[in-house]
Design a protein that fits this description.
Elements lengths: L3 H19 L3 H6 L6 H20 L2 E4 L2 E3 L12 E3 L2 H12 L1 H18 L4 H24 L6 H22 L3 H59 L5 H14 L4 E6 L3 E6 L14 H9 L3 E3 L2 H4 L10 E9 L2 E10 L7 H60 L1 H22 L4 E2 H18 L4 E7 L7 E2 L4 H11 L8 E10 L2 E8 L6 H4 L16 H13 L4 E7 L3 E9 L5 H6 L5
Parallel strand pairs: 10-12
Antiparallel strand pairs: 1-2, 1-3, 4-5, 4-8, 6-7, 7-8, 9-11, 12-13, 13-15, 14-15
Length: 593
Amino acid sequence: MLQLVPVMLEKVGVIVIVAFLLSKIHSFRQIVQEDHNKYEKLRLIVLFGAFGIISNYTGIEVYGHSIEQNSWLSEIGTESAIANTRVMGVVIGGLLGGPVVGIGAGLIAGVHRYSLGGFTALSCAISTVVAGVIAGYIGRKRKQLSKAVTAGFAVMVGMSLEALQMLIILLVSKPFAQAWDLVSYISIPMICINGLGTLLFMFIVQSVKRDDETGRAIQVNQSFDIADQTLPYFRQGLTQHSAAEIAKIMLRLTNADAVSITNTELVLAHVGAASDHHMANLRPETGLTRRVLETGRVSVARTREAIYCGHKDCSLRAAIVMPLKVKDKVAGTLKMYYTEPAKLDKVQEKLAEGLANLFSTQLELAEAEKQTKLLKDAEIKALQAQIHPHFLFNSMNTISALCRTNPGKARELLLQLSAFFRGNLQGARQMLIPLEKELETLMAYINLEQTRFPDKYEIRFDVDQGLLKSYIPPFTLQPLVENAIHYGPNGRKTKCIIDVRIYLEEGFLKIEVQDNGTGIPKERLQMLGNQVVESKGGNGTALFNIQERLKGIYNGQGALLIESIVDKGTKAVLVMPCNFKGVEEQNAASVYR
């Protein structure tokens, strides 16, 4: 019995080495995963059936209590039997692939064992099929219970089914005395060694699964890292600048030797190898790219010729080109090039395809964000347009009254009105303007109003001069002063004092307009700025428009706050982030994020 152990270990070692070598092959790694289609189950049947055949051929011929060490068994004597690891492969196949794989592998290995002969040929064939059936149903039940087939569990099942094989040999093989003598000699070594072989085989299978899970986790993390760093540039759309930055990030974070991005007409960016002839602002040079633009399908090239590059000294030898789509229409391509075809493996292909899908989604989101911004800009412009007539009619009434009594003053006021609207026309073309420009517009308004209401009010300014170059939304200050002039006194005979204070506090620019008027009742105060409020002097849109513009421009960071005490006065406060960006730069990113 003991002399059988080292020989059995040697045979198990052969199977384990074969399994280890297979684990390095991508197709083997695919078929040992959890879920299998019909084609993959067929491959599992062939694979584990082949393990059974190899075990039969490399088995140990046993005659009585003696063994015959043959390197390859093609047939055995009628009085002999085989000690081997056949059941091990069948059991593992059944546990991993379910009943179909277990039965299929069992039939292949069992029929082959029967063809070799020997007095245990029939019993071994039957036991092999039975082991496959039982292992297959155990594997399926395990899966239904959402429990993994662990190495320890597989060893327990394998050793139990090996013991069952010994029982079947005793029940089927004749004569019984010879069968008993054989089982007493081979049972313990075969049960133990096959258990060890199952353990090692399952360790290999689990290692394959862990490696794949680790690879997928790394790939997902890599994809998220790339997506996180490229998102700000995709928000800009497909431009030369954004494409160049995206290509640089991908070149740094992937194994590609060159990365290129195109729209439907031009190469927007190419960084890395072959930059001497793959350049921006040229039409896509390779036939591979043109084919992807036409078909909208991923294309892979593993030879220089398949890339279709016309440059004779091009160093690029492999490429994967993915379409970038917006609303199912090809908007461009993402290309990853390699100087060695071996670098373009399955992991790189999956990564590239995943990134292309992710980038397409980001482009769609960028397009949607752009449309939302344009809509918001249009809404803001419409709100500004509503404010202009509100002031125009008041000013024209004032000038009209002066034309009869003081034509010179009327002329002066027309010039002021002209200056006022010139400033507002310029502001209408921009989302933000310098504070000093807004103050100039306000002074033109005040000159007009003071002519109309002489000695009725006094306006005092307290402005931080360091903030004059900061930017604010146009036409926000004048409506607040206008409200203070028209609604603050409310019939009082005392002189109206209006204080305009502009200062910086905790990074926010604050503009206060405070009067000493009659104040606003609490129930009306809650509505001001939050909805259109009807009033005798107008339709109540001014404060609401200011609030809406601040919300739209600063994305919730700007606000109009109003405080008031009846018979004491009212204070309106504009709050917005302080910035000193240039007009062009600010208007290019007018919505704060």
